[in-house]
Write a structure and sequence with these properties.
This is Beta-lactamase. Helix content is 22%, strand content 21%. The chain is α+β, with helices and mostly antiparallel strands.
Length: 473
Amino acid sequence: MTRDHESTMSTSGITETDRFADLLPATRRTLLHLVATTQVQGRAPSLVAALVRDGRPVWAAGRGEVDGREPDPEATQYRIGSITKALVAVLVLRLRDEGLLDLGDPLGRHLDTPAGGEATVAQLLSHSSGLAAESRGPWWERTDGDLRPAPEDLFGERPQRHRAGELHHYSNTGYALLGALVEKLRGEPWYPVLRREVLLPLGMERTTYGPEGPHAEGWAVHPWADVVLPEPLTETGLMAPAGQLWSTAADLGRFAAFLARGDERVLSAASLAEMRRPAVEPQNADWSASYGLGLQLIRVDGRVLAGHAGSMPGFVGAVLASPEEGLAAATLANQTSMPEVVSLAARLVLATADAEPRIPEPWRPDEDADLALLELTGPWYWGPRAMLLRLGAGRTLDLAPLAGGGVRGSRFRPEEDGTWTGLDNYFAGETLRVVRRPDGTVSHLDLGSFVYTREPYAPEDAIPGGVAEGGWR
């Protein structure tokens, strides 16, 4: 196995990071116990799981049987259901990054569609388009896609169930339209585009449109007896972008690693972070779940995990990543109804994070720091409120309260015109400008019209409305 980034060398030539590159035996046993008990309690004919840390596969396991033997996390395929949606969403963000669309564009600007044309691309990605959850006709996951040969066959008499943007309403038909959007703008079917632009660059060679052996058979398990029933294997046609694909635990581990760390060959770090931000209101009262741009977000024990769950008749799966911990997990089982795979993926991540806390990279000076920006760092005042501006890598800036919290702090990315744009919190999308005096010295910062000065309400400062005569008293 390859080793992690080296740090301080010990006298034996083994680095401290090398020493803990692999999981500790106790951690491995804990993870195997989680997988084994989930397979038994969920009564899954078979189950596979994989864990990656800092982009590197560190553990995998299989339980149960496929064709008379234990399933292979690297080789055995399972149907991944709606995890397909997260992959399609990556393609849509790639189109945006290339300038072929804007997330605020109504779908109808790019695609002639019988429904959903007024919803924006972002609303379709975040399931807030208001479109119906399922397609017209019989249960689409268990019937052949030939029953829905044309786009108009996807929608019933009332395709729009809510106003676009009104609320989160999960829509499989919305992702059928996003797949059609990719096909329209790329000029070829969405799956070959996905394989060329996403799957192969990430090393996901065992992620395919249909099953390619070895693969698990899909089963339903009787709710009150330990007997099973085979589920039909369907080709979903126009609904395929909502849940068609097949994959392995190892391949989904590679995708999970991408969700945690990114890969500039596939999607910029900024766009991936955008996918992981909530785009709709949380779906429950305790704010433990939300949805971004093609990714489900769950909060467990103070950690936010990003990824997606999936199900098709006979199959369930989940991919969850924690960028902060550098950990990600994938789980797959061939059981129609087994929500435990989602909690299993989360528990694999959390158990590893608790047992083996992340060892941070060593601090090193920024060799490429723009020293001219040092004059901007340090304390600034928004009226009487003390704020601290720090310089980060790549000329980024970070504004935060000097003491306390919760007051309009943000991170900022540099722009070519010498300004900065807010990335999060109150000032997301707002512009930060440095205002200079005639002699070139810095007068103040202008942030969305707010003025930040070096002293709190100094008489000579450029304070809108002026400073009361006599100053502080």
